[in-house]
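explain this:
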Amino acid sequence: MDPKHTPVSGARRRWFATAGGVGALAAVASVLPTPPAVSSQPAPPAPPKPHRGGGYHLSAHVEQYYRTTRV
């Protein structure tokens, strides 16, 4: 028997064909749309807005940082 030409069994071919089919099914399943989750409990109320409006505001330590980063 020539070492360059080893026979491939039918079981091995079926295994690779099955693996390819499973991979294709997984790819299709990953792109299918999913229905939105339905919650049985109502959403919690939004927290109250901060007194000063929240978000970013320039404070003394931030001004000091900006002064130290100038070149």
User: Anything to note?
Assistant: The radius of gyration is 31 Å.
